Structures are given as structure tokens and as C-alpha cells.
Amino acid sequence: MSVHLNIGEWESLSYEEKNRRLFIKQKQLFDAFLTRHAISKYQYDEGLKYLSARAKTKTQ
Predict the structure, then answer these.
(1) Positive or negative, the Cα torsion across 6, 11, 17, 19?
(2) Is the pTM of this model over 0.85?
(3) Residue 32 resides in a domain
């Protein structure tokens, strides 16, 4: 799934879909940081825990 959209496509998405795509994009960034050793595994795990918790609170 591509997360790259033009502005018109982005605006047509639901709030939940926007949040889901944002989460995916942020997770991909964390994955890239970990792969390049820019962050430790601990930082990666903590970051994902934070993102997941935030995603859950926004959907409730």
C-alpha cells in the first residue's frame, strides 16, 4: 500500500484512514532509523509503544 497521496486524495479520506496511514508512515520512519542504526532497539520499541498507544486513544 502506498501512503503517498496528492492533497485531493488525502482530503477525501476519513479521519480513521488518515490516522492509520500516518501511523504506517511513522512506523516506516522508525524502521528506517533502526535499520541505519540511528536509534537503538530500545528506542525503537519505546517509540512504537508510544505510537501504538496514541493510535489507540485517537480511535476510541
Answers:
(1) positive
(2) no
(3) yes
Structural domain including 51 reads 7-59
User: 19: exposed, middle or buried (C-beta count within 10 Å: 0-12, 13-18, 19+)?
Assistant: middle
Identify whether 1 is part of a domain. Answer: no
Polymer length of the chain: 60
Q: 37 lies in a domain?
A: yes
In order, the DSSP letters of 18-50 are HHHHHHHHHHHHHHHHHHTTSS-HHHHHHHHHH
- 11-21 pLDDT, tens digit each: 899 988 988 88
